[in-house]
Every structure is written in structure tokens, then in C-alpha cells.
User: What shape does this take?
Amino acid sequence: MKLPFFKRWKKAGIDESPPSWENDVIASLKELVSDKGLDTSNLGLNIPLDESAKPAYQDRSDVMLYDGKQIAVWRVESLRDLFRGDAKPPPDSEMRHYPEQYTPFFYRVESHALSLCKAIHDPTDAQFLELYTLMRRRPDAKSTGPLHDAVWQGAAYALGFQPFSEAEYTAVFAQLARSARRWRMGASSRNYIAYLRKTFG
Assistant: This one.
């Protein structure tokens, strides 16, 4: 239902090289990709749909990977289990400009949310703000629905691919919340999702 991850990354104008499979990717994800023989140059997240093209129910801990030919399930019990290191993020004044080292994290979360929105009604800016705030404060909070699950899985994918500390995770979602708040023009405005659609195509 969408371009594989690295092709979409390039299309979005992100020139940074993919992470090192040897040094950056978390062990459980690396082992799954190796065991299943997945094509790492064509790997992306998949959203299962039912017969009516609506998101099919699934446990969000079952993160579905797709390389254009086959699907594999990466089991993630907790986002907190994926935090690595104790690196400190830059101040909010710098995070507002989406620093290059965090671009893949932002991209994986926002592009996966956008993919889900092809199958559901566009969420409001207020809904995104509420969700990003919840993700910042409580990474493993109980699911509130398909959008929450998609954002959670996008975050898991980002954390699995590159080492990010809890502080960096918090800073990313704080900035995502600020972005949704900036686009919000009222209770029913949907400017943020329109911005993502224009950015990622």
C-alpha cells in the first residue's frame, strides 16, 4: 500500500545513509531480518487491511515488516525496552528545526501515521496533539486505537534501527506535539495531516 521505506526516504529528500546493520540495528530486529532473509534495501512497515480496506485488528506488539515480497512479524513488547544509551538531545530551540540526526525518527513516525490515514478518516490536529503528548509521557500506554498503534509501531521501528536514549525519544515526541499544536487552528482543523501529505506525497 506504499513505497518501501528507503525509497520513500529518498523521495522525501532525506539523503542520510541508512543505519549500519552491524552496529546500529537492535539485536532482535537484526536476527529476524537475517532468519527470514528479508531484503534490507527494500524494507518497510506494513499495515494489514481487512476486506473493506480498513485497518485489520492486530496486537500492536506484532510489528509487521514487508520487503516487497514477504512479510515478517517483529515482536516488540515495550518501547522502553528499545531505549539505548544516555545521549542528551539538543535544546527545544534546535529540535524545532528537526535536526538531521533525528530526521529518520521523525520520518518513520510521521510517514507510518500518514500511511494509516489512507485507510481511515484524517485525524484532527487536536487528536495528533493529544496522541503525541501521550506518547511522550507514557510510551507504553494502553492503545487508544489504530492511529496510536501506527505511531507506536513507527516509534518502535525508529528505535530498533538506531540507538536513541529515553531523553532523545522524549524530545522527538515533544517536538511532534509542538508541530501538531502549531498547525491546530481549531477543534476540527486537519492542517497537520495535510502538511504531511504534501511533504511525503
Observations:
- Residues 166-183 form the longest helix (18 residues).
- The CA atoms of residues 21 and 30 lie 7 Å apart.
- The helical segments are 5-11, 27-36, 92-95, 103-116, 125-137, 146-161, 166-183, 191-200.
- The longest strand covers residues 62-66.
